[in-house]
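Input chain follows. Return structure tokens only.
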Amino acid sequence: MPAGGRWQTVRGVLVPLARHRTARFVAASTAAGLVVAAGAVAVAGPWDGGQRKAERVRAAAADRGHSARSAPGRPPAGPVLAAPAAGGRPPAASDVASALEPLLKDAALGSHVSASVVDVTGGGRLFGADEGAAVTPASTIKLVTSAAALAALGGDHRIETTVMLGSEGIVLVGGGDPTLTAHPAPSGERFASLPALADATARALKARGTARTRLSYDVSRYAGSAQHPIGPNDNLAPVSPLMVDEGRLDDSDHGPAERSADPAGDAARKFAELLGERGVRVDGSVEEGRAPASARRLAAVSSAPLAELVERALTNSDNDIAEALARQTALADGQPASFDGAGRAVTARLSRLGLPTDGVRIADGSGLDRSDRVSADLLARLLAHASDARAPELRPVLTGLPVAGFSGTLRGRYQEDDGRGLVRAKTGTLTGVNTLAGTVVAADGRLLAFAFMADGTSDAEGAQRALDRLAVGVASVR
């Protein structure tokens, strides 16, 4: 049994007992939420003791269906949250306002807070407070980036890293996969492995009677500056189509870490080392170059499906993956794979999805740029749209959301709150900016999408607690 408080079994699933005066509504919404969640488990991925494994980066041999998009001959996927979410009536707008308006006055949220609550089933707005204002979203912009990439490419799409054979040697060509790893891939690992690529390359060269070669690397898939406007930072490597382990200089796989200043060059030099270990000598120095048009494909490895990259990006708030998703969207839409080109492509995708784009500015894919602008209404409506059975390709936007008190960036939050296990949301934090956008099951089982954005805060921890109380407030409404 999990540590940290009292637990009970509801409909065969272990859930935390509420410990506050609001226990009655939490018990009701927990039960309803579990009924709704039961309809989602089959399509959202495996669970373990109430915690979705989809966000686990190294979930060994986890078969999550490989894609949110139906394969040829397969019946269309059902709604993310099945019929129970549509049961009953949506709460009255006046009741939502009564629950949220006092909480919005919390001084920790600063002088400007925008909010939107949308009924997922009907699509109607139940509450709004300056909901159309375009403000700095911080990392909640990853919801936008993820939805755009999924809409452009589908959940099955994989990013390839290839080795091309030319007349003067081989060329390592970056396709834009930041999850390519230099570590030996454990059994069941879904992410692309540089050692595996070296294995395949060495075999192919030896089959041609070649045991020595020259090596260059090609990063031409991306355009513009590789350096994010914030400059060198432990939260993001230079944005390159070729890197291993996100350019991290330690053994971490998420969170801040010292990064390489030359992730592409480092990846290529590591590849040369791996080839040497496999009996293929690399002559001369490893330099940046271009794969010639006449080059022939020698070997390749593929990333996990885009659906899984989105889940990892959202659960861990992974900036490197988010920037890659934005550039993959640009490439799919014929835009330059740069900060500006990605911003145009993502914005265009939002329009095609029918989402409100007034005042939207996409300056990056990760939310680290303070000049990003989106509205609470956009975020809430995006989440509602992602649950629609007519948009199954957007499903990973929901399955990737951290679960309050259990996973990702919400693991350490809601430990003392009644929203633990009920709220699923993407967090956003910059100095003076605190945001939260996600879904929650109301007391009668109705699924609601919400977004709360405060862009003038001075107490980050206090603001986070205030945002968490707002999400719990949504859950309390009948």
